[in-house]
Specification:
Number of strands: 0
Helix content: 55-70%
Strand content: under 5%
Order of helices and strands: HHHHHH
Structural class: mainly alpha
Largest sheet: none
Shape: elongated
Radius of gyration: 32 Å
Distance between the termini: 66 Å
């Protein structure tokens, strides 16, 4: 989905407020000039295009299987199955005698399908993470390009700025490594941990 910065979308609450410099010579000079359109991609919009009907089904099943209602439903189902097949409600109602082979087969098949649906959801989550990483990279690249252009417009040397940033990053990493070494417990020299 793309948005245009500075322009209200449909249903944005009426007309846009007048510009701050309306009527000033500077504003009149730019009459007819339009604001730049910036394409903003949202991860949900991209991901929604990738989802199919099977993904919706897998999401619904996985979402239901991850609730306590699912646990309670199975507890009642198993208890009723076992009570019926132990003959509590009469021998005529028994259809799966102990050791409940039919119940075992049904539960095994359910486990196979549930694990498959969970894997489908996990694979799609990994795909969503990839989409998010791509959008983050694009956003970072845009920011980097704009920063360089703004720096040049301000008369800054991009190579010097990059040199300063690299030096600061190295100092920060060295400080983090030093803190990590200090935080690690060290045994005294010559002590092998034997009391």
């Amino acid at each position: 989905m793309t948005h245009t910065l500075g322009k209200p979308g449909p249903g944005a609450g009426g007309a846009a407020p007048p510009p701050r410099n309306a009527g000033s010579p500077r504003h009149d000079k730019n009459v007819g000039a339009r604001e730049p359109a910036v394409a903003l991609t949202h991860e949900r919009d991209v991901f929604a295009q990738l989802r199919g009907s099977t993904d919706h089904v897998a999401d619904a099943i996985t979402a239901f299987a991850g609730t306590m209602r699912f646990v309670y439903l199975h507890a009642v189902w198993f208890a009723a199955w076992i009570l019926v097949n132990l003959g509590v409600f009469g021998q005529a109602a028994v259809f799966d005698r102990y050791p409940f082979g039919l119940l075992t087969m049904i539960v095994s098949l359910e486990a196979i399908f549930l694990s498959t649906f969970v894997m489908v959801s996990q694979n799609r989550q990994a795909a969503r993470d990839n989409v998010r990483a791509d959008i983050d990279f694009e956003t970072n690249l845009r920011s980097e390009v704009w920063s360089v252009h703004i720096g040049r417009a301000l008369g800054l040397d991009p190579d010097q700025v990059e040199h300063d940033v690299t030096r600061l990053v190295e100092q920060s990493r060295a400080r983090l490594n030093d803190n990590g070494k200090q935080a690690a417990p060290q045994s005294p020299p010559g002590n092998d941990g034997v009391a």
